[in-house]
Write a structure and sequence with these properties.
Blueprint: E1 3-4, E2 11-12, H1 22-42, E3 68-73, H2 77-82, E4 90-96, E5 99-109, H3 112-119, E6 126-130, E7 145-149, H4 159-169, E8 177-184, E9 187-196, H5 200-207, E10 213-215, H6 242-245, H7 254-269, H8 279-291, E11 306-311, E12 314-319, H9 340-344, H10 354-358, H11 361-367, H12 370-388, H13 392-410, H14 418-443, H15 451-456, H16 475-494
Parallel strand pairs: 3-8
Antiparallel strand pairs: 1-2, 3-4, 4-5, 5-6, 6-7, 7-9, 8-9, 10-11, 11-12
Helix pairs in contact: 8-12, 12-14, 13-14
Length: 495
Amino acid sequence: MWCLSPTTGTIWGETMIRHPHIDRICAGAILLALVLTGLLCFGEALGLRPASAAPGYASRLFDDGRVHTVDLRVEDWAAFLENAPAEEYIPCTAVIDGEEFYQVGLRAKGNNSLRLTEEYGLSRYSLKLEFDHYVDGGNYHGLDKLSLDASFQDNSYLKTWLVYHMMAYMEVPAPLCSYAWVTVNGAPWGLFLAIEEPEEAFARRNFGPDHGALYKPDYRSLNAENADVALRYTGDDPALYPNIFDNAKFDTDGADRERLIQALRVLSTGEDLETAINVDEVLRYFTVQVFVMNWDSYLGHTGHNYFLYEEDGVISILPWDYNLAFGTYALGMTDPIRDPDVLINWPINTPARGETMLKRPLYHNLMKNNDYFARYHAYFDQLLTEYFESGRYEAVIRQTQAMIAPYVQADPTAFCSYEDHLLAVDTLLEVCRLRSESIRGQLEGDYPITLAQQGSQPGAGVDASHVDLRALGDFDDLEAAKERQDEAAAIAGVE
């Protein structure tokens, strides 16, 4: 009689059975186990990871529970700053939390922030690190590119971080971010916000290895119509959409372009939108976008500062660039520019004026659908109830501000004083409280919910007259920062 041993798993009886190739089988099994163990232990460093696992960089640099360190080792920093407006890459060694990465591409970045930083004679540029610029396959634990955001016109240091936190809470794919104390060749440079750039690693993390196409539509000239940036369908010729296709993050082909144009064609009709638009995700995006009063965006005059994702002919809009949110950018919106009563009570049903609204089909054509319109309001109710009225926003703001406070106080290149920072944080808290109260009133019919209603009910809404939105960040801060910079340089010269 033959039996299976309960302890060894071998078959025994009067005579032990032995496979003639058992030694080879065992050796092969051991080798396979060693290979698998090696992949588990070191695969991340090789850019490999299980499909279900978060990328290594998410739990390292983007652990937002602490302030990280980034040391940029650059041969000639003064020359880099002098040439920064050209946005040309130079090689550097990036030491992130003590871990060295060699031959990393480094350049300044920005649009108006880059231009104005130069014009005011300042040197605190936002920066971009590209790990694979000089080294094929170079990465930071799977990450190909990141930004170091300088918090331009953001005295709170919190606006961009808070918006991405809100987007993630509403389950909109958003860049990871955390705070980093940046040094240059070991010398303090300042507190920056490290942000995951939406490129290959971002796409893999959010949409899987077989992800779709990613674009960053942007205008070439504000004087042009820029219909493609506004996501308006103007014909089937891909040449009509240079501001989209010339800004593709991955290689695209004719089929990619055809799918996106078809999606825009469907969008233009206002019918069967779910065949071409990730409607639910887009509605959640606009809920946050409208709450934070960000008009340097798709809903503003410029119509940019977003990413466009397309997969299987379905498009969605992804968040980007929020240093001018919470009413900081209000050109053309109010007179005076930052009238707090008008901005904080800005209606959620018509978040753009006149022609701008009609020329933003990704918002306008969705909201013409009664079901989508109701869902949009329901998402506002969710955001207000769970994130603001619950006190969550205040808790996350105060916790994060307490974490970064010593670094803000020590920041040698800051755009604002520490006292201005504290005022900005208090102002941001009050703006969020009042904005939440105003939108709740709009949803319940107590306050105007459209621009037309506001015109017929002047003065209706929450009283925000005590709020000075300039405290969040203004051009005067740049002038003061230049004075502090010059004073520090003079003292250093004396010493």
